[in-house]
Amino acid sequence: MKVYNSLTFQKEEFEPMNPNEVLMYVCGPTVYDSPHLGHAKSAVAFDLVRRYLEFKGYDVKLVKNYTDIDDKIIERAQEKDIDYITLSEKYIEEYEEIMTALNLKLDYKNPKATDIIDFMIHVIETLIKKGYAYESNGSVYFAVRTYKGYESIFQNKEGEEEYEDYEIPTDQEPLHGDKYDSKDFVLWKAWKEGEPFWESPWGKGRPGWHIECSCMTVKFLGEKIDIHGGGLDLKSPHHKNEIAQSTAYTGEEIFAKYFLHNGFIEVDQEKMSKSLGNFFLVSDLFKKFNPMVIRFFLISSHYRSSSNFTMDSIKQAETNYQKLLTTIQKVNELTPSGEKNGDLTELSDRIEKTRNGIIRAMDDDFGTPEAIAEIFTFFRELNRVLFEKNINITEEFKENFFTFIEELNEIFGIFPNLEEKLDLGLSEPIGEKDKLIKDLIDLTRDVREALRKRKIYDLSDEIRERLRALGLNIEDK
Length: 477
Hints:
Elements: E1 2-5, E2 10-13, E3 21-26, H1 37-55, E4 59-64, H2 71-80, H3 84-101, H4 117-129, E5 133-136, E6 139-142, E7 185-190, E8 205-207, H5 209-221, E9 225-231, H6 235-250, E10 256-262, E11 265-267, E12 270-271, H7 282-286, H8 291-299, E13 307-309, H9 311-333, H10 342-362, H11 368-388, H12 395-412, H13 418-424, H14 432-453, H15 457-469
Parallel strand pairs: 3-4, 3-9, 9-10, 11-13
Antiparallel strand pairs: 1-2, 5-6, 6-7, 7-8, 11-12
C-alpha cells in the first residue's frame, strides 16, 4: 500500500511505526461559522483514509481538534455581542450534526484548544528554555532561524536560505515590531482589552494558532505520529510551523511520518471562497440533497484533487448514487431459486475481481475514482445478467453479494442503515423519506422549545421520552 507524502513529494510504502496501529491527527475547523463544503471535503477525505486503514486491519486512533479560540472567533463573537464560548459551542454542535449526517465515524478524541491551555504554556516554556523561542512585550515567538532546515520543510529541494548556529539576540531591540525576524511566528499572544485571556508566566494572553495543533497531537497521541492530515491550504505556514515547533520541543527527528493534504472545492473551476461569492454551506445543500449524495460526490474525486462543484455535477452524483441503491434494492427483492449456472458462476467471480480491483485502487494512495469505476463496471454486468437475462440466483450468491455491499459501506461509508432502507423500499427518489424525517424532528424540537418557554415542562418531557422509545434522541438547545 502506498500513500503520497507531502514531505517527500512522492508516493511511499505505508509502514506505520507500530505494525498494528496508526496514530493519526487531522486539523479540524476553526469554529466561528457554519461548516461549508470545504470542511466536508476534508472531513470526508480523512474519514475515508481512516475507514480504509481499518478495513486493512489497522487500529486507527484519529484525533481531530477544534480551534475554539482565535482572532476570527473573537471578532465574530464581538459582532454578535456574545461570548466566544457560546459562539464556538454553537458551531461545534452544528459541525458535529453535519458530520454525523455525512456518516463520519466517531474519532478517538476531539479536543478543544482551550482544554489544554496549561499544557501549551508548559510546551512554550520548554521552547524558551531550549533557545527556540523568546518573550517580547508579553507575547512569545518561535525564532525560525534557530531551527536548522526550516526552509526545506515541504520543499523538494533545499531551501534557498538555511540557518546555521543562530542565537536569539535578546540583548538587542527587535527590528520587526515585537519580532527579531519577520518570519518568526507567535506562540503566545499578549492580551488586548476586551479579549479573553489566560494567566501565564508572560502575563495575560492566549495561545497562537500553530502551537494549538502541536500540543493537542503530543497530548493525545504522543511525540511521534504516523499520519498528519489537513487541507492543502494548511501546508504552509501552519503545518510547516507545526513540524518546527513540535520537533524542537520533543527532540525527535520526525513529528509525523506522513503528511497528507486534501484538495480544494472549486465552483465552476474557481476555488470556492466567500470573496468570490461562490460559497456553499453544507446545511443549505442538505435542504436539496441527501447527505449521502454529498458524500458520494466528494469521494468521487481523489482526495488530493480539487472537487469541481456545479449543480450538474451534484445532480449527476445523485443519479449515480441512486443507480447503486436501485440495483441493491432489486437484488434484495429477488427470491433465491434453482442452482448456480454458468452466468451466475461468472457473476460470483466478478464480485471477487471487483473486490480485488477496489483494493488495488485504494492501495494506490486511496484512489477512489478508480475504485468507484470498478463498482459501476460490476453493477452494469450484474444488471445485464440478472435483470436482462432473468437469471435465477442462489442463496449463496445473495449472501455473497450483500457481504460485498457491507464491505463497500465499511470502506466508503455510503450505505448507512442499509437494512432499514431496504425494508422501507428505495423506489421513491432518494432523500425524500430522510428529508421528511428530518423535518418532523425539527418540528418536534420547535414544539418542545415552545412548550418549555411557556413552562409546560411535563408535556415537553413526555414528548422527549416517547421519541426516545422510538430510538430518537432529541436534546434541548
